[in-house]
Description:
single chain; alpha+beta; elongated
Amino acid sequence: MILHLNHLDFCRYGVREPDRNPESIRQEAKLSQQIELGWEKQTVFQTATDTRIFPDGSMTVLSVSMDGEKFASFYFDQPVCIVPGVYFYLAPMRRELAGAVLCMDEPLRVVDAESRLGCGHVQSNMRVSGIYTLFYHEKEKGFFFAGEAHPALELTYVDQGVMHSVTDGQELILEQGDMVLYGANQWHMQYADMDMAPRYVTLSFEVQDGDLNSLLNRKLRPSQTCVTLIQQMIREQERMDAYSVDMIASQLTQLLLQLLRQQEPTSKLKASNSLNSENEIICRAQQYICAHIREKLTVPHVAKMVDVSPSYMTALFHKNLQISPGEYIRRIKIQESKQMIREGNMNFTEIAEVLHYSTVHHFSRQFKDKVGLTPTEYAKSVR
Length: 383
């Protein structure tokens, strides 16, 4: 990022100069030169003596380094005096003419006359450049997908249940909360055991720049932050206004960056033990709710089963999922009811009773509120 040119951050490299007329400084210095700044190529210099640099009023960045390898970049909006031995280059922030005046007592050493170090504007290392599909799958027991390969990257996240992923002869067993990323043109197939009806999310997309090879064809265990981003993408898709595609692309970019950070063994940004503990509590609560969704569930009962207080579990759900445990239970009940409707073995009254709704009318109201269709309309749409 570009830093503000203040005394504290710049003191290693020199000092800010008082505003003075460059012409008077030129007359005092033994050498002076006017340089033009390149957009595509920059010239790297090293100072031999104190070197004063004056901006010309254009939007410019001054990048400085003590070793010629790691540069710090400053918004160059006032004169500076750089001490001897410092490496530096100047670059415009926009595609327009820019320049600077340099004054010194001994010539600068040209380290690299055609370096492509990047211009002054902030550039991202990776971003999602296209999203093709975003689906939430609710599969029947023992589903089988014969496989495909396509130019897009594809991400699969298992929301409930267990499924098998086969890529290039390697099989992964993905449980609730697991994720896998398939590479471009990488053949993959998915299936479930005969007693398992998994629910999972798939996204196909493209990225610009960025190296995702460390994530490909591996069973990944995303953090709760990543899971929350997936949930936000699903909600954006349901909303789908003029900004939803951009929001989903932004959230997917964040998700991929979070996954890449998780792969860095020495990263200082790894979750603390307390955060890992929070994620474990939420995961255990989610797994218990999904496994016992046909039982009468209350927040105090679920909290007791994961050995925390109801208030603490509620706080964790709000902090990490932006919903209450009670709302999470209601959403999973609706998902389970959709599966039961597709199976066609029970009528709506029986489904409401199995899922412990007070009445079939209560079940129908909640179903319409969450799905946007009545149970009858949904049943017709899937048959």
